[in-house]
């Protein structure tokens, strides 16, 4: 077996050193009835690289890669071009195969990356401080609500109908088991919610998304001020991090916490994971944050260095009194995010965001020319909602048969509802030819 | 230098330590050969410079309504070669499993095969959107089903969820399932979860997060759960037991079947923390031990890379007793052979969603690639060699260090700091001195049940020659500590890109991001 360095001779001499006659003797504390007599039944035996590649490539071949056809899917996961440098650097073994940087003297690489990542996230969101990443955007959203509950000592969250339903459901699952109230508003494809009317003395936070799941872009400054007046926190969720290169950031609107998905930068679609949750707050809430934090300090020679810090919030120190049970973060995905953003820089990031916006504008113009199609949005970043004369799920299937991935039917996210709505995204990866092909195919399917 | 309770320096006198390092010449740049000082990326900014070439943005009317385009983000501008060099230099300041032995107890730092990286990057897996029509992702769903089958077979369990994003997330999932099952039976009076004192911090944190009161179970002299104390705490108010097995002392809980029977007799469920599954994978099925629910860290036992702290993946396996209480989504295979994803909880006992989309797919591919490479016979050998390596270390070190308990151990061996008594050298000092010898330290000060713990997990992917070198180094350090060379240890590590870091100062006045203002203020001082 190619991954196991011990030879039979090694094993014999080691058993002799331990003074046992066989490895079985080392398992003597396992109840006899539970010891298997030999390799487990029902599984194949070891395989060479070639055989594994063959089997897994066959499975991969039964999927349609989004990049092989015109693709317009978004709804919380976006196909952007990732520079070759990113994947090369994240595969350096010193990043890929290191553990959590608990021993800072031999982890300054990971730690400096995290410090820079935290700074980048704070800059993008317009917030004071960010943590070293969360599992994904949805879990970051749920943790943000629980943090707001801790800060305000209240237990009721108001979730906008524009919040991605997976984020909503992740939060309501926690609400059920952890014990708080999450009031989720019905989906609002055209907006028009009166969130403030629902805020009362028990409300810990209001959760909105920008752009929302239907693509609308809003200024939440007034909502932030009203929340503050009533002692509730405003949590702004961002599922498309690219939008932060163009829109007024949530921090400037007055958000108390930003919970975002960072996949768009540096990370492939990966069928939904692993992604990277971004979590940023105002300075005054730092000690209530979940997750790991990296901080600057000095070493014994007085030189700048970095360590994990404020760990007295965390489970390995506080156990049942921790702010969260979270241990793992999304380190490698955060690294990919960071490298991509470093390559883009100020100029590249803001230009790429504008390019996305322009592409979506071009797509909206084309689709609005298709008979029977109505664009619901007055505003959007790179994603919008269209109303179709037929159930969107059927239309998407028919488009897939024509080898076009034509968006996400709203009913996929809201079963039994919003049948005629389709969420459509465009990024820098979509060419004008892609858009023409989409519009033509949609026109054929609908006629 | 004074020390806090964990032996960490609280007051550092730089001058003393520098003098101990006088053999290393000063350089003009501060670089030391291959160790190159690297400024923050923000300190390498040249406005207007960019590491990508993008097309012109077509002229267009913005469709942002009342939202203003932002003026500035504040990111630095670098060209591609600078970015490559920045991250390459940073990477060289990390220890990694690719560099050498990484014997962190309870973390299972084993070799990460590159085949798995290659497989995860096949466009058919990496370039697939989670919300594509099911007809276009049959292979992805098949992979999830196949991974689930391997995990169910290896554990003997009835049901699997792949949704949780990490081990602690899996724990949360398992405790939620226990709660959902009690709720379904109307048993709302069960408010306690029992957790042994030796447990990982995530266990009590998870139980408490789910609204349970945590009751600690003491251990016995031989490092196991005190069965009588456990039985005394079991009652109609107990929802479940969370137990790690093999436990965090590296020992197998001999009474586990009796424990399971007692837990079940009290109407509670048995949660097993599967962090240490590597010790028994392919040789013992957790279902045969009476376990109801267990999470599995794909990033430990099944070798998906730790990536400097994540991403992880924490599938959970369920016995029949809890099989209905799973989160969404999950994959089912229809009679016609097609795979379908159940994404919404609906009316059944399945509970809600725990994250967006379908789990850590990239990790699923790597883990299945690892499992198929090993096969049933290879996994048997994995557990055998992991346990053999740990026992070899125990046998080779027990005369100079102090094992906390009698062997055999399982996949990791635990020592305490009695062998350092009277030397002035601490567990932390030994760990830091090991760094100078070219090894990553073991887990220190965990588990909490022994004093100054040193928990060593070599894994099966270490050679005997590698272990022998580690043994030689550790024996020499133990002897050196006993010979009274305390200053050497307190100043260690001597040879790293940074010496000991002032963690107290970091926590007292947290600096959690770079700001141009702060840098200017420092420069002006």
Key attributes of the depicted protein:
heterodimer; A: 447 residues; Aspartate Aminotransferase, domain 2; 2 domains; B: alpha/beta; 15 strands; 10% strand; disordered N terminus
Structural description of this entry:
The complex is a heterodimer of chains A (447) and B (525). Chain A is an alpha/beta fold and 447 residues long. Helices cover 38% and strands 13% of the residues of chain A. In chain A, helix 4 (84-90) packs antiparallel against helix 12 (331-368), helix 6 runs parallel beside helix 12 (331-368) and helix 12 crosses helix 15 (432-446). The longest helix of chain A is centred in the C-terminal third of the chain and has 38 residues, at 331-368. By secondary structure, chain B is α/β, with parallel strands linked by helices. Chain B folds into two domains: 117-370, Type I PLP-dependent aspartate aminotransferase-like (Major domain) (Aspartate Aminotransferase, domain 2); 379-506, Aspartate Aminotransferase, domain 1, CATH 3.90.1150.10. Chain B has helices spanning 14-19, 80-91, 114-120, 123-126, 138-155, 167-184, 202-209, 227-233, 256-265, 361-397, 427-436, 464-482, 486-491, 503-508, 516-524, and strands at 159-161, 192-196, 213-217, 238-244, 269-273, 293-295, 316-318, 327-328, 330-333, 339-342, 351-353, 402-403, 413-416, 443-444, 454-456. In chain B, strands 1-7-6-5-4-2-3 form a seven-stranded mixed beta sheet, sandwiched between helices. A four-stranded antiparallel beta sheet of chain B has the order 12-13-15-14. In chain B, strands 8-11 form a two-stranded parallel sheet. The longest helix of chain B is centred in the C-terminal third of the chain and has 37 residues, at 361-397. Chains A and B meet through helix 1, helix 2, helix 3, helix 4 and helix 5 of A and helix 1, helix 2, helix 3, helix 4 and helix 5 of B.
């Amino acid at each position: 077996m190619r991954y196991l360095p011990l030879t039979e001779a090694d094993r014999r001499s080691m058993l002799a050193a331990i003074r046992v006659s066989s490895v079985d003797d080392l398992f003597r504390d396992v109840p006899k009835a539970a010891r298997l007599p030999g390799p487990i039944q029902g599984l194949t035996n070891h395989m060479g690289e070639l055989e594994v590649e063959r089997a897994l490539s066959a499975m991969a071949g039964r999927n349609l890669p989004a990049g092989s056809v015109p693709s317009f899917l978004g709804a919380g996961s976006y196909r952007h071009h990732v520079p070759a440098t990113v994947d090369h650097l994240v595969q350096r073994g010193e990043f890929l195969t290191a553990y959590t940087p608990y021993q800072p003297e031999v982890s300054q690489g990971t730690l400096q990356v995290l410090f820079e990542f935290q700074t980048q996230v704070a800059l993008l969101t317009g917030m004071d401080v960010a943590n070293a990443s969360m599992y994904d955007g949805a879990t970051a959203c749920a943790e943000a609500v629980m943090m707001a509950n801790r800060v305000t000592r209240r237990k009721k969250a108001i979730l906008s109908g524009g919040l991605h339903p997976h984020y909503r459901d992740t939060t309501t699952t926690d609400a059920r088991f952890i014990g708080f109230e999450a009031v989720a508003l019905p989906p609002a494809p055209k907006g028009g919610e009166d969130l403030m009317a629902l805020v009362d003395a028990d409300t810990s936070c209001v959760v909105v998304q920008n752009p929302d799941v239907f693509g609308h872009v809003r200024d939440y400054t007034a909502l932030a001020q009203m929340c503050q007046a009533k002692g509730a926190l405003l949590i702004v969720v961002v599922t498309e991090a690219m939008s932060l290169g163009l829109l007024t950031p949530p921090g400037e609107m007055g958000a108390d916490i930003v919970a975002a998905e960072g996949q768009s930068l540096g990370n492939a679609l990966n069928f939904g994971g692993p992604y990277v949750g971004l979590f940023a707050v105002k300075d005054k809430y730092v000690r209530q944050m979940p997750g790991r934090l990296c901080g600057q300090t000095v070493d014994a020679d007085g030189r700048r260095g970095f360590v994990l810090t404020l760990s007295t919030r965390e489970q390995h120190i506080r156990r049942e009194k921790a702010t969260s049970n979270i241990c793992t973060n999304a380190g490698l995905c955060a690294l990919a995010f960071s490298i991509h953003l470093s390559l883009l820089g100020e100029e590249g990031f803001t230009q790429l965001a504008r390019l996305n916006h322009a592409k979506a504008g071009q797509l909206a113009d084309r689709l609005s020319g298709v008979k029977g199609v109505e664009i619901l949005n007055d505003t959007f970043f790179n994603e919008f909602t269209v109303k179709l004369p037929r159930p969107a799920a059927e239309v998407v299937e028919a488009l897939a048969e024509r080898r076009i991935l034509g968006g996400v039917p709203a009913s996929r996210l809201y079963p039994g509802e919003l049948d005629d709505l389709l969420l459509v995204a465009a990024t820098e990866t979509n060419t004008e030819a892609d858009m023409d092909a989409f519009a033509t195919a949609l026109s054929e399917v609908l006629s | 230098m004074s020390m806090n309770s964990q032996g960490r320096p609280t007051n550092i006198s730089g001058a003393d330590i520098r003098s101990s390092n006088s053999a290393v010449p000063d350089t003009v740049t501060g670089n030391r050969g291959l160790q190159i000082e690297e400024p923050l990326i923000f300190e390498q900014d040249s406005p207007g410079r960019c590491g990508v070439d993008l097309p012109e943005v077509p002229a267009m009317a913005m469709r942002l309504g009342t939202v203003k385009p932002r003026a500035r983000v504040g990111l630095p501008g670098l060209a591609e070669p600078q970015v490559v060099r920045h991250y390459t230099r940073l990477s060289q300041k990390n220890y990694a499993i690719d560099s050498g032995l990484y014997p962190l107890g309870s973390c299972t730092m084993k070799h990460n095969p590159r085949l798995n990286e290659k497989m995860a990057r096949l466009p058919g897996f990496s370039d697939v959107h989670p919300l594509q029509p099911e007809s276009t992702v049959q292979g992805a769903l098949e992979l999830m089903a196949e991974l689930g089958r391997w995990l169910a077979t290896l554990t003997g369990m009835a049901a699997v969820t792949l949704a949780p994003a990490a081990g602690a997330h899996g724990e949360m999932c398992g405790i939620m399932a226990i709660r959902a099952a009690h709720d379904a039976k109307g048993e709302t009076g069960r408010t306690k979860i029992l957790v042994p004192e030796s447990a990982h911090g995530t266990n009590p944190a998870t139980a408490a997060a789910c609204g349970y009161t945590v009751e600690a179970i003491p251990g016995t002299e031989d490092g196991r759960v005190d069965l009588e104390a456990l039985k005394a705490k079991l009652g109609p108010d107990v929802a479940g037991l969370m137990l790690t097995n093999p436990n965090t002392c590296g020992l197998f809980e001999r009474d586990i079947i009796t424990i399971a029977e007692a837990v079940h007799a009290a109407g509670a469920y048995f949660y097993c923390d599967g962090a240490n599954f590597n010790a028994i994978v392919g040789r013992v099925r957790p279902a045969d031990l009476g376990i109801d629910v267990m999470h599995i860290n794909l990033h430990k036992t099944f070798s998906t890379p730790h990536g400097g702290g994540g991403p992880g993946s924490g599938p959970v396996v369920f016995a029949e007793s809890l099989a209905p209480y799973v989160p969404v989504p999950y994959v089912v295979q229809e009679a016609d052979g097609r795979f379908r994803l159940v994404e919404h909880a609906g009316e059944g006992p399945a509970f809600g969603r725990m994250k967006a989309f379908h789990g850590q797919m990239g990790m699923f591919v790597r883990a299945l690639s690892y499992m198929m490479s090993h096969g049933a016979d290879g996994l048997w050998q994995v557990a055998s060699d992991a346990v053999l390596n740990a026992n070899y270390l125990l046998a080779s070190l027990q005369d100079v260090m102090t094992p906390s308990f009698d062997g055999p151990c399982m996949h990791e061996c635990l020592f305490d700091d009695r062998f350092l008594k009277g030397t002035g050298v601490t567990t932390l000092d030994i760990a830091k001195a090991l760094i100078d010898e070219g090894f990553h330290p073991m887990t220190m000060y965990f588990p909490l049940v022994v004093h100054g713990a040193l928990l060593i997990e070599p894994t099966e992917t270490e050679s005997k020659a590698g272990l022998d070198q580690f043994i030689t180094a550790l024996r020499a350090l133990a002897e050196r500590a006993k010979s009274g060379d305390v200053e050497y240890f307190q100043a260690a590590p001597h040879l790293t890109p940074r010496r000991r870091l002032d963690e107290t100062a970091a926590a007292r006045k947290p600096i959690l991001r770079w700001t141009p203002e702060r840098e200017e203020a420092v420069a002006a001082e």
